[in-house]
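User: structure tokens for this one?
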Amino acid sequence: TLSVSENEDSTFDVILPLLHGPNGEDGTVQGMLELLNLPYVGNGVLASAAGMDKVIMKNLYAQAGIPQVNYVWYLKKTWENDPEAAYLKVEKELGYPCFVKPANLGSSVGISKAESREELILAFKEAFQFDRKIIIEQGVKAREIELGVLGNDEPECSVAGEILPKKDFYDYKAKYEDGDTALIIPAEIPADVYEDMKRIAVDSFKALDCSGLVRADFFLTEDGTIYMNEVNTMPGFTPFSMFPLLWKHSGVEYPELIERLVKLAQERHAEKQNIKHTM
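Assistant:
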């Protein structure tokens, strides 16, 4: 429990909110830390909330010109009022295969791949168990490439890494239970593709007004087309997680990475103290 009175100095130098999912990385805890005026590592309220909501994220990226796969989204009430219209819209605008996801959940929970109307119906029902809003994305045959982004107003990127799931897609069980994945760092991609990914990662970081860190996740097709999948505003942070490993292979060891994140948090907090809120 955090408790800071008006008449005593904070005993916290910097908070590391290493939390995932709703009420952790969605801006709620970040809002509490803002109210307490405490420096904290990572993204602020806006970036955290927008990064958690896949629909809001993709809408912002579409406006910013970030390349993405085609998508549609639905509210539960809209789907319940006319499910047939929802299925027809997906089939007309995306086709099969497609992926159905809760809008506001991480770790691949509630995600299904649909290759037919029957599977699409089941996928809608599954995703709506976890959220009132879902997103449906066009399926593409592609490699999964990830970059770490570090910084505030002038972010920089790590080397690229590749996820090689043995299953059809990188679901919750593959991530946390089976261990049926391999992490290839650095990823074997052409230099020009890597440069394009770095540019898109930085553009994506800035489009959400991110700070501190994100992990930028891409799809790379056989013909070299790059799609931004999503950014994770508080990626896994064990020494064996992708984000720290990407930076380790970029020459930044785990202790130095923590130190840099702390300094970025202090830098952002100090800048905020100089901002006027009244005339």
